[in-house]
Write a structure and sequence with these properties.
- With 456 residues, this protein is mainly α.
- The chain has a single domain, classed as Amino acid/polyamine transporter I.
- 77% of the residues lie in helices and 0% in strands.
- The chain contains 20 helices and no strands.
- The protein has helices at residues 3-6, 13-24, 27-40, 43-71, 75-82, 89-121, 129-141, 143-161, 165-192, 197-205, 215-228, 235-240, 249-276, 290-299, 305-339, 343-363, 369-372, 381-409, 411-418, 428-455.
- Helix 6 (89-121) crosses helix 8 (143-161), helix 8 packs across helix 15 and helix 14 (290-299) packs antiparallel against helix 15 (305-339).
- The relative contact order is 0.20.
- Bound molecules: phenylalanine (PHE).
- Phenylalanine (PHE) binds at residues 23-24, 26-29, 102, 227-228, 230, 233, 235, 323, 326-327.
Length: 456
């Protein structure tokens, strides 16, 4: 409560929606979603993803925003102020660690995106399908460059964060969302008109439920939904803490989900038609390189493709930065609140720590064998990090948040906050059931089943 005075608030409701969707929209939508759809077998994965978004993540997003606004505090403080003397603050602490963990691999991919702004502008390599894939391999093999680019991403993020809440985040996102949306629509239209694109559309939109044989697909969809909505680690608690009492939480949350999901679905509408227009394309085999291999070939088919390509990777970089800001904000605001560190000190120390943690992800794409093929896992370090943090840490964080709000803080108290100032909150009874029963049961069964699969 003390923070009430110090803490900034968003300039307006639109400012909040833009900033929260700035956090949500990022590599998760444009890089992560198509990659997961490709590995999860297409349209059936998309359906499981949408079910997770609406029935599990949306209620938890509402809960996180309510927690943040009620306590006006960062995640650790939010739990300890509503349940003093208990161990619930550990959920906030898990979020702080998860923020650093996600950022450590996210900054590597964001670094590749920055490099592709330049590559796309001289896109001679994109004319030959074979060489685009090779180009990506050769580029990411060079671990030192990846490391340098990751450091660049972290430094820019730290710089923006030191600019403060309103000026830093709102300004960037206001211009970003509409431009990104427009460019994605243009690219989707181009992708539809490529020869062979029909097979891509069918793969993406016509579900084959036989693909849903493994629990891993459900786990991946759940993790992707949490990751894409910046949920389960307290980002939205932190963002909610800057929300004004007069802004309706339900409608703010609905907007964020709508924007985030639209952009992810649009990204798929580009990648799969464009991918299937390439002879011999296999959506499952590219892994994290999917967008870096498919998109340059798409740009090569467009008049002015170099310009489009650079603009696209520039917008993607900006979208990634509005997400990295929010990832770094969680540990930083915790250290500022809990240890009374100055913002500058907290930003400096966390950035350094995250950079150190990012090194194995940067060097694990061919540069160092042990990190490229982690023994016993048949995967590289970056994918390992993504699995641990996205598929397990975030859903477990979300599970604990649902249990906390459903059973400790109680839906009645939460609804007080959600309907403050007569804000409308449709279907409060349904939300209570979802947060108390459905969300915990769904997350718990998926997590247990996949852990069982992994340990077996
Ligand atoms: N939602 C972001 C994206 O899709 C990533 C993110 C995850 C940001 C968790 C904050 C917290 O790119």
């Amino acid at each position: 409560m003390i923070q009430d005075v110090k803490r900034g608030t968003w300039g307006s409701r639109t400012g909040f929606i833009l900033a929260a969707s700035g956090s949500a929209v990022g590599l998760g939508n444009i890089w992560g979603f198509p990659t997961q759809v490709g590995q999860g077998g297409g349209a059936a994965f998309v359906i499981v993803y949408l079910v997770c978004v609406f029935f599990v993540c949306f209620p938890i997003l509402v809960a996180e925003l309510a927690l943040g606004r009620r306590t006006r505090s960062s995640p650790v403080g939010a739990f300890s102020s509503l349940s003093p003397g208990s161990s619930w603050w550990l959920v906030g602490a898990l979020g702080v660690l998860t923020g650093a963990g996600i950022l450590s691999f996210y900054c590597v991919i964001a670094g590749w995106t920055i490099a592709y702004i330049g590559f796309a502008s001289t896109s001679s390599f994109a004319n030959d399908p074979q060489s685009v894939g090779n180009f990506f391999q050769t580029f990411t093999n060079d671990g030192l460059t990846s490391m340098f680019l990751a450091l660049l991403v972290l430094s820019i993020t730290a710089g923006i964060l030191l600019g403060g809440v309103r000026s830093g985040i709102e300004r960037v996102t206001k211009a970003l969302m509409p431009s990104l949306l427009l460019l994605l629509v243009v690219l989707a239209i181009r992708a539809f008109t490529l020869p062979g694109s029909g097979a891509g559309l069918a793969y993406y939109l016509r579900p084959d439920f036989a693909m849903l044989t493994s629990i891993d697909v459900f786990n991946a969809a759940l993790g992707q939904a949490f990751f894409s909505l910046s949920l389960g680690m307290g980002t939205m608690i932190t963002y909610g803490s800057y929300l004004r009492k007069t802004d309706g939480i339900a409608s703010c949350a609905a907007w964020v989900v709508l924007i985030d999901t639209t952009i992810a679905l649009l990204a798929g509408l580009i990648i799969f038609p464009a991918g299937f227009s390439i002879p011999g394309f296999d959506p499952g085999s590219s892994g994290p390189g999917l967008i870096f291999e498919v998109l340059p070939r798409l740009f090569a088919t467009i008049p002015g493709g170099r310009l489009f390509g650079s603009a696209f990777f520039l917008l993607l970089t900006m979208a990634a930065l509005t997400s990295t800001i929010s990832l770094l904000e969680v540990p930083v605001s915790h250290l500022v609140d809990a240890l009374q560190w100055t913002r500058r000190k907290a930003v400096g120390i966390v950035t350094f720590f995250v950079f150190a943690l990012s090194i194995p992800s940067a060097l694990g794409n061919g540069y160092i064998d042990l990190l490229t093929n982690v023994p016993g896992l048949n995967d590289n370090f970056l994918n390992l990090m993504a699995t641990v943090w996205n598929n397990f840490a975030l859903p477990i964080g979300g599970l604990l948040i649902a249990i906390f709000v459903g059973w400790i803080w109680t839906p009645r108290q939460a609804l007080d906050e959600l309907t403050a100032h007569n804000a409308s909150f449709p279907l409060p009874g349904l939300w209570s059931i979802l947060i108390r029963w459905i969300c915990p049961a769904a997350i718990l069964s998926i997590i247990i089943a996949s852990l069982y699969g992994i340990l077996l």
